[in-house]
Amino acid sequence: MKDSHQKNRRALLKLMGLGGVATLGASNVILPKQVKAENSFAPKIAIIGAGLGGITMSAHLKDILPRASITLFDKKETMYYEPGFTLIAAGIYTKEDVEYNKADLIQDGITWIKEDISKIEPKQNKLKTETNAEYNYDYLIIATGVHYEFEKVKGLDLNTIHDPNSNITSIYTANGAVKARDFIQKLVKNGGRAVFAEPNTAIKCGGANKKVNFLLEDLAVKENSRDKVEMLLCVGGNSMLSSPAHAMMIEQFYIERKMPYLKQHLLVEVDTKNNIAIFDKLMPYSENGVKKVAKERFESKFDYLFVIPRMITTPIISEAGLGVSKGDVEGNWVDVDQYTLQHKKYDNIFAIGDCAGVPKGKTGASIRKQYPVIGANILSHLQGKELTAKFSGYTACPLLTRYGKAVMVEFDYEGTAPTLECMGATRESWMNWFVKVYLMKPMVMKAMINAKA
Length: 453
What we know:
Blueprint: H1 2-16, E1 44-48, H2 52-64, E2 69-73, E3 78-80, H3 85-89, E4 99-101, E5 111-113, E6 117-121, E7 126-129, E8 134-136, E9 139-142, E10 147-149, H4 158-162, E11 168-169, H5 174-190, E12 192-198, H6 208-222, E13 229-235, H7 244-256, E14 261-263, E15 265-271, E16 276-287, E17 290-301, E18 304-307, E19 310-312, H8 316-319, E20 349-351, H9 364-382, E21 395-402, E22 405-411, H10 430-447
Parallel strand pairs: 1-2, 1-9, 2-5, 9-20, 11-18, 12-13, 12-18, 13-14
Antiparallel strand pairs: 3-4, 6-7, 7-8, 10-19, 15-16, 16-17, 21-22
Helix pairs in contact: 2-9, 5-6
């Protein structure tokens, strides 16, 4: 035991020595290679969205294209470190710990237009803002993130989620995370029934609800109130996560800890007066070669409901003909090549972050791997060269399983991604918890957002 502790301590010190920051993707802690373009290149680059992806991308482009004119479009002046929302629910962070003024994050030399874009005209390389101001671009990077569709569930909307008097919340907003913290504390103290609901469409950070579920169960055990707390996880899809190995791991955790869960149970309605969550039990089948889905109503009472909404990106994407034209997210996510992140129709348009229509990669760790790819491919395009930089589909999520324990979930298009030995691919460890709680926020909000990690 002593040898194991010393080994983990040495591994942690080694990790902390890698530039003093943790990784958003423990498989690659080497800083992206910086390649500056010839001074003759001075393109006009527009970036729609000043979230983590947009601001990081602007910093990187400023580094590699010092003569470029770079403009960010976003009317929101506040940004949240969203990976910290689960730590708010855990009672470790406060809302103020994850709240940032974008003016403090956007680098000097980057133009920030505090307006949202209302229209994209890709054939004319033109943007229109909500005040009808027009801007031309040579390159467009779409970093619009996701929009939440709580209203797709009958009886729900964002106001319900943020209403301090309602017993329904979502870990995907800062105010919702604060409510989740309060719900956990009340459940552990007084007992009750918590229901967790997830959609069957693409979402960012697919482990978020499960983290809250795990932390609730662990705290109830620690406070000797587990027998008073009922819980049920209902997943709309047929898997706990898009990585099969990690999906199996999560199911095993639920089974071992006697935490009930149901797959292919999609939340469709909430009876807020009677505290009943109504689901469609989805039963796929094939008839004459045609895929169909039978549905059966399933109801569950709750004292507290934790909801993940269906997610889309901004409607201006589909309105401009830039969205995916086939599949479950038709007309929604930006239709880019999954490797180069270049739009399939317009070669001067790229997408980064949650809005990108790629099979995997809706986490901050994905952005860390995407921004160097887009930067390199814009340089290649400027020089008339083939786009050779490729995004591997890498994504990562420190899955909080208990207070003081986490699993570093990492995978890519191939299904798995190499992990530092000290992290462990499917192993709970204190080290992963330490990275999540203490190292990741400074790495993201000081290093990565400045394109230095």
